[in-house]
Design a protein that fits this description.
With about 280 residues, the protein is an all-alpha fold. About 70% of the residues lie in helices and about 0% in strands.
Length: about 280
């Protein structure tokens, strides 16, 4: 596992400008879908954080137990993730919605470097745009301290615990995605597995790290909140955990056991990745 991979990918893509322009001209719908998907996720995150956390919310008064509200938040965001993955946008773009996921599939040789660069750029743009849209829709409610634009930040256990937790949840999520999505029997249910993990992590792990796994998601909230507490954790820990999961999977199953970078491939949408999904279907 090379820690210089992201920099090398960016440098190679920028040097080959005609190839970069060609990718944008040909694959811009997928790039916009990635931005839109994460943007919708952030609107949902800010909306449910306001509904469940703002002092004036009737839900907070009806459900005073923070743990129960955290569980509801997890359920809401898990269902949001599932909805996006199985949406027409998610089926076409692959529903990475996360630079760490894209980087991992790049390391596995399933994504072209030029596409990885644009995916990451549009994911960051989409995350920020989603929080801006939520701010426009919710006004000052989403800026209230208990909500604070759904910022992810280390909990009372501290920075070290948050870092370890982010590595661990990112590792297990990516390993699950690889195992399930590359199974002929289970592949169509990858989105359900991913959504269930998101729900569980928010309910259980969020008090430790805020539950991000996604630098674009965290930066989007941080920019509007102007709260960059331990931001480095969410840029380092998720890709580290996911790249480690990819290494573990390929050592266990082999590199050829990764068939595509889409989370949902049981559809008739075009695929822009280095895809050999047909080999799995023929097994």
């Amino acid at each position: 596992m090379s820690l210089t991979l992201p920099a090398a990918a960016v440098a190679d893509a920028l040097i080959d400008r005609p190839s970069l322009a060609g990718a944008l001209a040909e694959h811009w719908p997928e790039y916009l879908m990635e931005a839109g998907g994460l943007g919708l996720f952030m609107v949902s995150a800010c909306g449910f954080a306001t509904l469940l956390g703002h002092p004036a919310s009737p839900v907070l008064r009806a459900i005073p137990d923070p743990l129960h509200r955290q569980m509801l938040m997890g359920l809401a965001m898990g269902l949001t993730a599932i909805g996006i993955i199985y949406s027409p946008w998610g089926k076409r773009s692959g529903a990475h919605l996360n630079p760490s996921v894209t980087l991992t599939f790049l390391s596995l040789g399933k994504v072209e470097r030029r596409d990885a660069l644009f995916y990451a750029a549009f994911q960051f743009l989409g995350g920020a745009a989603g929080v801006v849209l939520a701010s426009m829709l919710l006004g000052g409610l989403v800026a209230h301290p208990p909500v604070n634009y759904a910022v992810t930040a280390p909990g009372p256990a501290g920075v070290a615990a948050a870092f370890v937790a982010e590595v661990a949840i990112s590792f297990f999520l990516m390993l699950t995605v690889l195992v399930v999505s590359n199974s002929k029997r289970l592949g169509r249910y990858t989105g359900l597995f991913a959504g269930a993990l998101v729900a569980t992590y928010i309910a259980v792990e969020a008090p430790i790290s805020g539950m991000s796994m996604n630098p674009a998601r965290t930066l989007g909230s941080a920019l509007l909140a102007r709260d960059f507490t331990a931001l480095w954790i969410y840029f380092v820990a998720p890709p580290l955990g996911m790249l480690a999961a990819a290494q573990s999977y390929t050592r266990w199953r082999g590199a050829r056991a990764v068939f595509c970078a889409k989370l949902h491939h049981h559809n008739n949408q075009r695929c822009i990745f280095r895809c050999n999904w047909g080999e799995l279907g023929a097994q």
